[in-house]
Design brief:
Blueprint (H helix, E strand, L loop, with lengths): L1 H19 L8 H7 L1 E6 L8 E3 L2 E3 L1 H13 L2 E6 L5 H6 L5 E2 L7 H4 L3 E2 L4 E3 L1 E6 L15 E5 L3 H11 L7 E5 L2 H6 L6 E5 H9 L4 E5 L12 E3 L2 E2 L4 H16 L2 H16 L2
Helix pairs in contact: 3-9, 8-10
Length: about 270
């Protein structure tokens, strides 16, 4: 009985350790302070939330995480990766957090925890300027539609192809929405989030964008909310992130940064 209890206790302790030390790396608040840095994954092709400006990754999400790092008293280390690698990297402890215009979904909440939502968006479609044949989601049936790989836009288009709303459409994934938009001509349309779509058309006179709706005028998806993701069970870090976000939202800083970085992204054609 004693041996059984010891083995059981060891398993419980191991599971607890794995929760906070994915792949052998500590992600808890004490470990962050000890390391002197807060590490984050992003995907630097999603303006205005993260993009490259003067050879530096900048944007709304970067400003948010800088504020979190300042609150903890450490430096921020930003690591660029593919969008579809962010959740897994946070879950396994490769980094402390993920911030990349990540929509909070029930499926993602099975793998990571999310902060308080800090902004919201809706799905837009990008088309060649002057195209008048595509007005609704159903008009994309049989078309080649580009998306950013692993995003809710990707999942949405895949679902609409499967349920017949975009019957016969081809889904073409790209690393960034801008790369997808640059391929218009080879592909017919791009589906992505609102602000990103608006920046892309501001940088490309030959493109237009508008909300993607069904033929009855209803949105193709619910309003989406972005959050910062962290490993499950990391309550101390989550509390600090939420505290900082609440202050930034109340002060109007998120909206201010969205405007500032939209302008910078347009300036450099991000």
């Amino acid at each position: 009985m004693k041996k059984f209890f010891s083995v059981t206790l060891a398993i419980v302790m191991l599971l607890s350790t794995l929760t906070m030390f994915g792949c052998g790396k500590a992600t808890g608040l004490d470990a962050i302070k000890k390391a002197g840095k807060l590490t984050m994954y992003t995907e630097a092709g999603f303006a205005p939330y993260e993009f490259v400006y003067n050879n530096e990754i900048v944007g709304v999400d970067i400003e948010i995480m800088k504020a979190v790092a300042d609150r903890i008293g450490v430096e921020l280390e930003v690591q660029d990766t593919n969008f579809d690698a962010i959740i897994g990297g946070v879950q396994t402890g490769k980094v402390n957090a993920g911030a990349a215009g990540i929509t909070i979904t029930a499926e993602r909440l099975e793998s990571v925890d999310f902060s308080t939502p800090y902004t919201q968006t809706e799905q837009y479609v990008i088309l060649p300027a002057g195209n008048t044949t595509i007005k609704f989601a159903e008009d994309l049936a049989g078309k080649n539609v580009g998306v950013q790989n692993g995003t809710t836009s990707d999942l949405l288009v895949e679902e609409m192809i499967s349920n017949g709303k975009m019957a016969g459409a081809t889904l073409t994934p790209y690393n960034t929405p801008a790369m997808a938009a640059a391929a218009i001509g080879k592909i017919d349309a791009v589906v992505t989030d609102k602000l990103t779509a608006e920046i892309i058309i501001n940088n490309n006179e030959g493109l237009q964008a508008f909300p993607l709706v069904n033929s009855d005028g209803t949105p193709v998806a619910e309003i989406e909310k972005y959050g910062i993701c962290i490993a499950k069970g990391n309550e101390d870090l989550l509390a600090i992130i939420n505290e900082v976000l609440d202050e930034l939202i109340a002060a109007g800083k998120i909206a201010q940064w969205e405007q500032e970085y939209s302008a910078k992204a347009t300036e450099v054609g991000a």
